[in-house]
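note to self — DONT lose this again. spent like an hour looking for the file last time. sequence + predicted structure for the chain T wanted, 260 res
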Amino acid sequence: MICWRKATTSGAIHIQLPKAMGQHQLHVHESLDALSQKLASVLCARIQEAQTRKQEAFTVSLHGGRSAKALFQAVTAQVRADGLSLENMHFFWGDERCVPPGDPESNYLIAANSLLTPLNIPSERVHRIIGEAEPGFAAKQAEAELCRICEISPTGLPLLDFVVLGMGEDGHIASLFPNTPDQDAVSEACYVPVIGPKPPPQRISLTYPVLFAAREMHIIASGESKREALKQTLTAQTTPAGRCIAQRGNTSVHCDFFIK
């Protein structure tokens, strides 16, 4: 039996759930702001650790949506408060809509406005998906950049250091949606063109194998409308988020609501 515990004023609760799936830890936060501040502190700690061990490139995969803006603003504030250098960081995306970078639907634009521009990240360390290009070309170009910068595993997969994914109301992550053919998503490619059920439909997404291989992953489920999808994700393997958790050694899941 799974017992869901209630958060207290002391901060996030960390709950290890018994299951037959891959290991995960659920972090229940009081609000999206509290969630963002906590995750920002985790990311900044990882950046400092990478610098201490003189890691040449620390690679991060970003997400889009409401939770992304809140997180990026929290990271920006934390980096400034800590006086943290980001000279070894490289930024990638879990997915992108097939739109120009200045389009309001662009995931890149959210990061540019809330994180990259405020922190003066050089363009050579920002590896955006070229959403305005032909989707097949954009996917191949994004894969080439990922493989150029990331360490490659013995099985040939790029190893992202820190991945943040927002979870949708249907349990989707990146642009990997439920109840859709996923032969492309499990292909040997790192990024693939996707036709999604939500507008704009044309997208580019990381594939499951790259997500399975990432060194550290955080999934954000923000808003009461995600409650049922999160329950399903954590107790079964029937959502894309659940599928990802099931195939990984460990994943951190964050929400800003109580699960009853």
